[in-house]
Each structure stands twice: as C-alpha cells, then as structure tokens.
C-alpha cells in the first residue's frame, strides 16, 4: 500500500435525481448514517436502482462515492475525456491511492466529516452510455486474469460534516489484519 496517508478534496458533487453524472457543488454535507444530503443515493437502505430490485431492505453501503482525480489523467491517455462529477462520484480526491485502502478505513474529510470505506465501485453499463468503451477501461482483467476495477470506492458516513474543494483528507487505517477491498 502507498505510504502516503493524506490527500486533498479536489471537487464535490451531488444530484437529487438518478442520473449518471453529478453536477459540481461548492460544498456537500455528509450526514451520518444517511450519506450526501440532497443526493439521490443517500439513505440508510440501498438507493441504487439495480440493488433495490434484489433487496430493498439492504443496508446502504454505497452512501458516498469517491474517485481519485489521477484516474482522469490515466483515462485521458487512453483516449477518454472525464472530469470531476462525470463518473457519478460525490468526492474527487488527489494525492491518495483510494483503491489501495483496506475495508474499514476511515477517511477524515475537512473539519468533521468521516467516511468509512466499504468497498470498490463496480462499473455498470451506464458508463458506456456516457462514453463508449469506458466500462472496459475501468474494469478489465490483468495479465493473470484478475479483474481490475478503477471506478473508485464507496463508503458510509460515520460523522456528519461539510466537505469542500481544498479540504484535507486524512486516512485512519483499521486494525490489522487489513481486508482488501471487494465490490459493494
């Protein structure tokens, strides 16, 4: 895992409708046990349409979606144009390898907000409607056949607070042994 345990919030987004991309906001308020205030994915139980079909009582482990902005540069080198909010994330970060964090990591954002990491986002077919071929770029097998996912991480809000671009992001790792991220 990367030894760097801090990062920066670059952009924040929310949308009260179930659309793929989310508009950039000057700040967002994270509400403990609920998610991003005013976002269509907020709630104690799952709000993702495909998960609701299977079990509408399922706890919402995907209240907050975070993506590292370094991904945007990687995708640009592969011929895609993606910027903050366009992958449906709530928080775009810089300086921290989000995908290397273990399950249960707590991300301290700004003065008060805390998000506990629950797993990786599994890119869905909506991504190809946004840009053809993007799903394959974000989810593909490596040389050994292991599926690599780069579409960010998901978490739940543990402590309420406001998050704005420029805020610090600090990592609090869980107790050992660390469990690698799976899909939520």
TrEMBL record:
Domain MOSC stretches: 18-172
Domain of life of the source: Bacteria
GO molecular function, one term: pyridoxal phosphate binding
Pfam families, A to Z: MOSC (PF03473)
Name listed for the protein in its UniProt record: MOSC domain-containing protein
Native species: Cryobacterium arcticum
